[in-house]
Protein backbone atom coordinates (compact mmCIF):
# COMPACT_ATOMS: atom_id res chain seq x y z
CA UNK A 1 0.00 0.00 0.00
CA UNK A 2 2.79 2.41 0.90
CA UNK A 3 4.65 2.07 -2.39
CA UNK A 4 1.45 2.16 -4.46
CA UNK A 5 0.50 5.45 -2.81
CA UNK A 6 3.90 6.90 -3.68
CA UNK A 7 3.67 5.65 -7.28
CA UNK A 8 0.19 7.23 -7.58
CA UNK A 9 1.59 10.53 -6.28
CA UNK A 10 4.40 10.57 -8.82
CA UNK A 11 2.21 9.59 -11.77
CA UNK A 12 0.02 12.59 -10.92
CA UNK A 13 3.01 14.85 -10.26
CA UNK A 14 4.59 14.23 -13.67
CA UNK A 15 1.40 14.00 -15.74
CA UNK A 16 1.23 17.26 -17.77
CA UNK A 17 -2.39 16.63 -18.76
CA UNK A 18 -3.87 16.26 -15.29
CA UNK A 19 -4.03 19.97 -14.50
CA UNK A 20 -5.06 21.53 -11.21
CA UNK A 21 -8.08 20.26 -9.36
CA UNK A 22 -9.38 17.84 -6.73
CA UNK A 23 -8.11 14.77 -8.61
CA UNK A 24 -4.55 16.08 -8.64
CA UNK A 25 -4.70 17.09 -4.97
CA UNK A 26 -6.06 13.68 -3.97
CA UNK A 27 -3.40 11.77 -5.87
CA UNK A 28 -0.59 13.97 -4.58
CA UNK A 29 -1.55 12.96 -1.04
CA UNK A 30 -0.03 9.62 -1.96
CA UNK A 31 3.25 11.18 -0.88
CA UNK A 32 2.22 10.22 2.64
CA UNK A 33 2.86 6.63 1.73
CA UNK A 34 6.32 7.67 2.92
CA UNK A 35 4.87 8.13 6.42
CA UNK A 36 3.58 4.57 6.22
CA UNK A 37 7.05 3.42 5.09
CA UNK A 38 8.65 4.98 8.16
CA UNK A 39 6.09 3.44 10.53
CA UNK A 40 6.59 0.04 8.90
CA UNK A 41 10.36 0.39 9.20
CA UNK A 42 10.14 0.80 12.97
CA UNK A 43 7.58 -2.02 13.10
CA UNK A 44 9.60 -4.54 11.05
CA UNK A 45 12.87 -3.87 12.84
CA UNK A 46 11.45 -4.10 16.35
CA UNK A 47 8.81 -6.82 15.99
CA UNK A 48 11.06 -9.94 16.02
CA UNK A 49 13.14 -8.57 18.90
CA UNK A 50 10.12 -7.64 21.00
CA UNK A 51 8.59 -11.04 20.21
CA UNK A 52 11.69 -12.80 21.55
CA UNK A 53 11.68 -10.49 24.54
CA UNK A 54 8.15 -11.50 25.46
CA UNK A 55 9.10 -15.16 25.24
CA UNK A 56 12.46 -15.02 27.02
CA UNK A 57 12.35 -11.96 29.23
CA UNK A 58 15.82 -10.75 28.28
CA UNK A 59 17.69 -11.07 24.99
CA UNK A 60 20.99 -9.93 23.58
CA UNK A 61 20.59 -7.61 20.62
CA UNK A 62 23.50 -8.25 18.27
CA UNK A 63 24.14 -4.72 17.01
CA UNK A 64 27.02 -5.75 14.73
CA UNK A 65 24.90 -8.48 13.16
CA UNK A 66 21.98 -6.11 12.84
CA UNK A 67 24.08 -3.54 10.97
CA UNK A 68 25.62 -6.25 8.77
CA UNK A 69 22.11 -7.28 7.71
CA UNK A 70 21.12 -3.67 7.08
CA UNK A 71 24.18 -3.17 4.88
CA UNK A 72 23.51 -6.31 2.83
CA UNK A 73 19.78 -5.67 2.63
CA UNK A 74 19.89 -1.98 1.65
CA UNK A 75 23.14 -1.06 -0.08
CA UNK A 76 23.53 -3.50 -3.03
CA UNK A 77 20.08 -2.81 -4.56
CA UNK A 78 20.57 0.91 -3.95
CA UNK A 79 23.91 0.96 -5.73
CA UNK A 80 22.57 -1.16 -8.58
CA UNK A 81 19.65 1.27 -8.91
CA UNK A 82 22.06 4.20 -9.23
CA UNK A 83 23.98 2.39 -11.99
CA UNK A 84 20.87 1.24 -13.88
CA UNK A 85 19.15 4.63 -13.68
CA UNK A 86 22.34 6.39 -14.76
CA UNK A 87 22.65 4.15 -17.81
CA UNK A 88 18.96 4.49 -18.73
CA UNK A 89 18.97 8.26 -18.39
CA UNK A 90 22.17 8.45 -20.46
CA UNK A 91 20.89 6.20 -23.26
CA UNK A 92 17.34 7.52 -23.65
CA UNK A 93 18.30 10.90 -25.23
CA UNK A 94 20.19 9.00 -27.94
CA UNK A 95 16.86 7.44 -28.94
CA UNK A 96 15.07 10.78 -29.09
CA UNK A 97 13.44 10.60 -25.65
CA UNK A 98 13.39 13.82 -23.64
CA UNK A 99 14.48 13.34 -20.04
CA UNK A 100 12.87 15.77 -17.56
CA UNK A 101 15.27 18.36 -16.24
CA UNK A 102 14.95 17.03 -12.67
CA UNK A 103 16.58 13.78 -13.81
CA UNK A 104 19.09 15.21 -16.26
CA UNK A 105 22.56 13.77 -15.78
CA UNK A 106 23.92 17.19 -16.64
CA UNK A 107 22.78 18.35 -13.19
CA UNK A 108 24.39 15.48 -11.28
CA UNK A 109 28.14 15.78 -10.79
CA UNK A 110 30.58 13.17 -9.55
CA UNK A 111 30.58 14.82 -6.13
CA UNK A 112 26.80 14.34 -5.99
CA UNK A 113 27.23 10.68 -6.88
CA UNK A 114 29.85 10.25 -4.16
CA UNK A 115 27.58 11.87 -1.60
CA UNK A 116 24.70 9.57 -2.55
CA UNK A 117 26.95 6.53 -2.17
CA UNK A 118 27.48 7.36 1.51
CA UNK A 119 23.97 8.80 2.07
CA UNK A 120 25.20 12.36 2.47
CA UNK A 121 22.30 14.59 1.44
CA UNK A 122 23.34 18.16 2.17
CA UNK A 123 23.51 20.44 -0.91
CA UNK A 124 23.13 17.61 -3.36
CA UNK A 125 21.47 16.85 -6.68
CA UNK A 126 19.89 13.41 -6.41
CA UNK A 127 20.00 11.02 -9.33
CA UNK A 128 16.48 10.11 -8.24
CA UNK A 129 14.68 12.64 -5.99
CA UNK A 130 13.04 9.75 -4.10
CA UNK A 131 16.45 8.81 -2.67
CA UNK A 132 16.12 11.52 0.01
CA UNK A 133 14.15 9.15 2.25
CA UNK A 134 16.85 6.47 2.08
CA UNK A 135 19.48 8.80 3.53
CA UNK A 136 17.23 9.64 6.48
CA UNK A 137 16.26 6.04 7.08
CA UNK A 138 19.90 4.94 6.95
CA UNK A 139 20.80 7.39 9.70
CA UNK A 140 17.95 6.21 11.90
CA UNK A 141 19.12 2.62 11.48
CA UNK A 142 22.19 3.55 13.50
CA UNK A 143 20.05 4.97 16.31
CA UNK A 144 17.47 2.20 16.30
CA UNK A 145 19.31 0.16 18.99
CA UNK A 146 19.09 3.19 21.31
CA UNK A 147 15.37 3.53 20.62
CA UNK A 148 14.88 -0.16 21.29
CA UNK A 149 16.76 -0.05 24.60
CA UNK A 150 14.81 3.04 25.64
CA UNK A 151 11.48 1.35 24.87
CA UNK A 152 12.35 -1.79 26.83
CA UNK A 153 13.76 0.12 29.81
CA UNK A 154 11.21 2.94 30.12
CA UNK A 155 8.05 3.28 28.06
CA UNK A 156 7.38 6.62 29.73
CA UNK A 157 10.74 8.01 28.62
CA UNK A 158 10.17 6.65 25.11
CA UNK A 159 6.81 8.43 24.86
CA UNK A 160 8.42 11.61 26.20
CA UNK A 161 11.08 11.50 23.47
CA UNK A 162 8.39 10.87 20.86
CA UNK A 163 6.33 13.87 21.99
CA UNK A 164 9.45 16.04 22.30
CA UNK A 165 10.39 15.22 18.69
CA UNK A 166 6.92 16.19 17.47
CA UNK A 167 7.00 19.50 19.34
CA UNK A 168 10.59 20.30 18.32
CA UNK A 169 9.90 19.51 14.66
CA UNK A 170 6.76 21.66 14.63
CA UNK A 171 8.11 24.62 16.61
CA UNK A 172 11.81 24.77 15.72
CA UNK A 173 14.19 24.14 12.84
CA UNK A 174 16.12 21.53 14.82
CA UNK A 175 17.01 18.27 13.18
CA UNK A 176 16.61 19.28 9.55
CA UNK A 177 14.71 16.58 7.66
CA UNK A 178 15.47 13.79 10.11
CA UNK A 179 13.66 14.93 13.25
CA UNK A 180 10.22 15.47 11.65
CA UNK A 181 10.06 11.85 10.43
CA UNK A 182 11.48 10.26 13.59
CA UNK A 183 8.07 10.14 15.34
CA UNK A 184 6.73 7.86 12.58
CA UNK A 185 9.71 5.53 13.07
CA UNK A 186 9.12 5.45 16.84
CA UNK A 187 5.40 4.86 16.35
CA UNK A 188 6.34 1.72 14.45
CA UNK A 189 8.01 0.35 17.60
CA UNK A 190 4.83 1.01 19.59
CA UNK A 191 2.72 -0.63 16.86
CA UNK A 192 4.90 -3.75 17.05
CA UNK A 193 4.36 -4.02 20.81
CA UNK A 194 0.60 -3.55 20.43
CA UNK A 195 0.51 -6.19 17.68
CA UNK A 196 2.25 -8.62 20.02
CA UNK A 197 -0.11 -7.94 22.90
CA UNK A 198 -3.14 -8.41 20.63
CA UNK A 199 -5.45 -6.07 22.57
CA UNK A 200 -9.11 -6.02 21.61
CA UNK A 201 -8.95 -2.68 19.79
CA UNK A 202 -10.72 -3.87 16.61
CA UNK A 203 -13.24 -1.24 15.58
CA UNK A 204 -11.54 1.33 17.77
CA UNK A 205 -8.45 1.13 15.56
CA UNK A 206 -10.58 1.75 12.47
CA UNK A 207 -12.28 4.72 14.11
CA UNK A 208 -8.92 6.13 15.20
CA UNK A 209 -7.59 5.75 11.67
CA UNK A 210 -10.65 7.52 10.21
CA UNK A 211 -10.33 10.33 12.76
CA UNK A 212 -6.59 10.74 12.18
CA UNK A 213 -7.12 10.72 8.41
CA UNK A 214 -9.75 13.47 8.66
CA UNK A 215 -7.47 15.59 10.84
CA UNK A 216 -4.53 15.01 8.47
CA UNK A 217 -6.54 16.05 5.41
CA UNK A 218 -8.05 19.07 7.16
CA UNK A 219 -4.72 20.34 8.50
CA UNK A 220 -2.75 19.81 5.27
CA UNK A 221 -1.30 23.05 3.86
CA UNK A 222 -2.94 24.41 0.73
CA UNK A 223 0.35 25.32 -0.94
CA UNK A 224 2.24 22.76 -3.04
CA UNK A 225 5.06 22.18 -0.59
CA UNK A 226 7.47 19.29 -0.89
CA UNK A 227 7.04 16.48 1.61
CA UNK A 228 10.10 17.38 3.65
CA UNK A 229 9.15 21.08 3.81
CA UNK A 230 6.14 20.44 6.02
CA UNK A 231 5.47 18.69 9.31
CA UNK A 232 2.23 16.74 9.22
CA UNK A 233 2.02 14.65 12.35
CA UNK A 234 -1.59 13.81 11.51
CA UNK A 235 -0.48 11.69 8.57
CA UNK A 236 2.06 9.86 10.73
CA UNK A 237 -0.65 9.09 13.29
CA UNK A 238 -2.97 7.97 10.47
CA UNK A 239 -0.29 5.58 9.19
CA UNK A 240 0.22 4.27 12.73
CA UNK A 241 -3.52 3.69 13.19
CA UNK A 242 -3.74 1.97 9.80
CA UNK A 243 -1.07 -0.53 10.88
CA UNK A 244 -2.99 -1.18 14.10
CA UNK A 245 -6.28 -1.60 12.23
CA UNK A 246 -4.85 -4.06 9.71
CA UNK A 247 -3.31 -6.06 12.53
CA UNK A 248 -6.48 -6.23 14.61
CA UNK A 249 -9.35 -6.49 12.10
CA UNK A 250 -9.50 -9.88 10.32
CA UNK A 251 -11.29 -8.48 7.27
CA UNK A 252 -8.65 -5.79 6.74
CA UNK A 253 -5.87 -8.29 7.40
CA UNK A 254 -7.28 -10.57 4.69
CA UNK A 255 -7.70 -7.68 2.24
CA UNK A 256 -4.10 -6.55 2.71
CA UNK A 257 -2.86 -10.12 2.39
CA UNK A 258 -4.16 -10.86 -1.11
CA UNK A 259 -1.48 -12.23 -3.39
CA UNK A 260 -1.04 -9.18 -5.72
CA UNK A 261 -0.53 -6.83 -2.77
CA UNK A 262 1.80 -9.33 -1.14
CA UNK A 263 3.97 -9.47 -4.27
CA UNK A 264 4.03 -5.69 -4.53
CA UNK A 265 5.05 -5.58 -0.87
CA UNK A 266 7.93 -7.98 -1.44
CA UNK A 267 9.23 -5.84 -4.32
CA UNK A 268 8.34 -2.48 -2.73
CA UNK A 269 11.94 -1.41 -2.07
CA UNK A 270 12.96 -2.01 -5.69
CA UNK A 271 9.81 -0.32 -6.98
CA UNK A 272 10.59 2.70 -4.84
CA UNK A 273 14.19 2.81 -6.05
CA UNK A 274 13.45 3.01 -9.79
CA UNK A 275 9.87 4.11 -10.42
CA UNK A 276 9.95 7.93 -10.36
CA UNK A 277 12.47 8.56 -13.19
CA UNK A 278 10.63 6.01 -15.34
CA UNK A 279 7.24 7.58 -14.64
CA UNK A 280 8.49 11.09 -15.37
CA UNK A 281 10.26 10.12 -18.60
CA UNK A 282 7.37 8.06 -19.99
CA UNK A 283 4.79 10.75 -19.23
CA UNK A 284 6.95 13.43 -20.86
CA UNK A 285 7.36 11.47 -24.07
CA UNK A 286 4.07 9.60 -24.58
CA UNK A 287 0.33 10.07 -24.27
CA UNK A 288 0.01 6.94 -22.16
CA UNK A 289 -2.56 7.07 -19.37
CA UNK A 290 -1.27 7.69 -15.86
CA UNK A 291 -2.73 4.36 -14.68
CA UNK A 292 -0.83 2.41 -17.34
CA UNK A 293 2.36 4.35 -16.62
CA UNK A 294 2.06 3.46 -12.93
CA UNK A 295 1.49 -0.20 -13.80
CA UNK A 296 4.60 -0.19 -16.01
CA UNK A 297 6.63 1.40 -13.23
CA UNK A 298 5.51 -1.26 -10.75
CA UNK A 299 6.34 -3.98 -13.30
CA UNK A 300 9.78 -2.50 -13.94
CA UNK A 301 10.42 -2.31 -10.20
CA UNK A 302 9.40 -5.94 -9.79
CA UNK A 303 11.81 -6.94 -12.57
CA UNK A 304 14.54 -4.95 -10.83
CA UNK A 305 13.74 -6.84 -7.61
CA UNK A 306 14.06 -10.21 -9.35
CA UNK A 307 17.48 -9.37 -10.79
CA UNK A 308 19.15 -6.99 -8.34
CA UNK A 309 17.42 -7.29 -4.97
CA UNK A 310 16.25 -10.87 -4.52
CA UNK A 311 19.81 -12.32 -4.37
CA UNK A 312 20.46 -10.16 -1.30
CA UNK A 313 17.28 -11.08 0.58
CA UNK A 314 16.25 -14.62 -0.41
CA UNK A 315 19.37 -16.59 -1.35
CA UNK A 316 22.44 -17.95 0.40
CA UNK A 317 24.41 -14.94 -0.85
CA UNK A 318 22.83 -12.79 1.85
CA UNK A 319 23.93 -15.15 4.61
CA UNK A 320 27.48 -15.36 3.29
CA UNK A 321 27.82 -11.58 3.03
CA UNK A 322 26.40 -11.08 6.53
CA UNK A 323 28.83 -13.65 7.95
CA UNK A 324 31.69 -11.85 6.19
CA UNK A 325 30.74 -8.39 7.45
CA UNK A 326 29.75 -9.33 10.99
CA UNK A 327 33.23 -9.89 12.50
CA UNK A 328 34.64 -6.81 10.74
CA UNK A 329 31.88 -4.62 12.14
CA UNK A 330 32.35 -6.15 15.58
CA UNK A 331 36.05 -5.30 15.54
CA UNK A 332 35.35 -1.77 14.32
CA UNK A 333 32.79 -1.19 17.06
CA UNK A 334 35.23 -2.49 19.62
CA UNK A 335 37.91 -0.16 18.26
CA UNK A 336 35.70 2.92 18.69
CA UNK A 337 34.51 1.75 22.11
CA UNK A 338 30.98 0.59 21.26
CA UNK A 339 29.72 -2.75 22.51
CA UNK A 340 28.87 -5.00 19.54
CA UNK A 341 25.78 -6.28 21.40
CA UNK A 342 23.49 -5.03 24.12
CA UNK A 343 20.97 -6.73 26.38
CA UNK A 344 17.41 -5.49 26.21
CA UNK A 345 14.65 -6.29 28.67
CA UNK A 346 14.43 -6.87 32.37
CA UNK A 347 17.46 -7.89 34.38
CA UNK A 348 15.30 -10.41 36.19
CA UNK A 349 13.97 -11.97 33.02
CA UNK A 350 10.31 -11.31 33.85
CA UNK A 351 9.59 -8.30 31.67
CA UNK A 352 6.77 -8.21 29.16
CA UNK A 353 4.94 -11.12 30.70
CA UNK A 354 7.71 -13.74 30.65
CA UNK A 355 6.71 -16.42 33.11
CA UNK A 356 10.15 -17.27 34.45
CA UNK A 357 13.77 -16.12 34.13
CA UNK A 358 15.59 -17.57 31.16
CA UNK A 359 19.13 -17.54 29.89
CA UNK A 360 19.75 -14.64 27.46
CA UNK A 361 19.93 -15.64 23.82
CA UNK A 362 20.68 -13.67 20.71
CA UNK A 363 18.01 -12.99 18.12
CA UNK A 364 20.38 -13.16 15.16
CA UNK A 365 18.55 -16.06 13.54
CA UNK A 366 15.20 -14.34 13.85
CA UNK A 367 16.48 -11.18 12.16
CA UNK A 368 18.28 -12.89 9.27
CA UNK A 369 15.19 -13.08 7.09
CA UNK A 370 13.90 -9.63 7.95
CA UNK A 371 13.11 -7.38 4.98
CA UNK A 372 11.59 -3.90 4.77
Provide a count of the helices: 16
Class inferred from helices and paired strands: mainly alpha
Please report the total strand number as a whole number. Answer: 3
Helix content class: 55-70%
Distance between the termini: 13 Å
Report on this structure:
With 372 residues, the protein is mostly helical. It has one domain (2-368). The chain is 67% helix and 3% strand. The protein contains 16 helices and 3 strands. A 3-stranded mixed sheet has the order 2-1-3. The radius of gyration is 21 Å and the shape is globular. The two termini are 13 Å apart. Residues 347-372 have low confidence and may be disordered.
Task: Give a brief outline of the structure.
This protein is mainly alpha-helical and 372 residues long. The chain has 16 helices and three strands. Mean pLDDT is 86; it is low at 347-372.
Provide key terms for this protein:
single chain, globular, 3 strands, 16 helices, mainly alpha, 372 residues
Question: How would you summarize the topology of this molecule?
Answer:
Elements: H1 2-13, H2 22-28, H3 33-56, E1 58-62, H4 63-91, H5 110-117, H6 132-153, H7 155-171, H8 178-197, H9 202-219, H10 233-248, H11 250-255, H12 259-266, H13 268-285, H14 290-309, H15 316-335, E2 341-345, E3 361-362, H16 364-368
Parallel strand pairs: 1-3
Antiparallel strand pairs: 1-2
Amino acid sequence: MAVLLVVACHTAKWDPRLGQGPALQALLQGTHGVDLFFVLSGFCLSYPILRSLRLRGRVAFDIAGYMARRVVRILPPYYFAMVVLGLVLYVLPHFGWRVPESFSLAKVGWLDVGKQVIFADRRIEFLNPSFWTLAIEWRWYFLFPLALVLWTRSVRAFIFVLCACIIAAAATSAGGFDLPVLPAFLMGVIAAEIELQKPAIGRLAILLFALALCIAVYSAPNSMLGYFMQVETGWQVAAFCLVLAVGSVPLLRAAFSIRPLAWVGVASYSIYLVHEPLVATIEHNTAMSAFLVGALAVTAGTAFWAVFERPFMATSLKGRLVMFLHPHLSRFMGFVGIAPSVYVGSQSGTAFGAESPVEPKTVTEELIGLSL
